[in-house]
Amino acid sequence: MGCSAVIRVGRRLECPRLVSRPFKDVQSPSSFVKEVPRNEAEDLLIQAEDLLIETGDYYLQTVKFIPYNRNLKEFSRQLRMHSTKGEVLLWNRLKQKQLRGHTFNRQKPLGNYIVDFYCKPVNLVIEIDGGSHHFEEIMVKDVERQRILEELGLSFLRFTESQARFDLDNVVWEIDRWVEAFEEKDRL
Fold this sequence. Notes:
Blueprint: E1 4-11, E2 31-37, H1 38-54, E3 58-65, H2 73-81, H3 85-94, E4 105-110, E5 113-119, E6 124-129, H4 136-151, E7 155-160, H5 161-166, H6 168-187
Parallel strand pairs: 6-7
Antiparallel strand pairs: 1-2, 1-3, 4-5, 5-6
């Protein structure tokens, strides 16, 4: 399963919220998008940092696209209709941009997997592990799935079903603290 990065370059004034990083191979674009393999994206970032010293006129934004398996769409709908009580309770606290104005998806296909909750702006996956996740075979699969998705740049927070049901305020607090730390780091 491959992953690509999209490089968007434009004049800094067009999008002042972005971290300014100009792009070396561009003379004076108003904006363009270039898709490159993930391994080439790092080289482009290094080139962009070099140009920042030279001109400072352009910014560079990279966005990783996580592959979407359309074959999982119907299964993810079924999972949403049969959510656990802990998932429903947490969803009621995450939906409609209630947490720091971010959109969360539930039972979201990412690559060849479906995650319980996903927040794209902060690359965060939240998993609610029920009783079946304590079996060794399931735990091994969870670890492998998490490793693969982390290689795509995602971060994970895991909670138990009982935490989501009986300690929901602390679960939401931990998610909020994680998102706050991500936003603070992103501002630097």
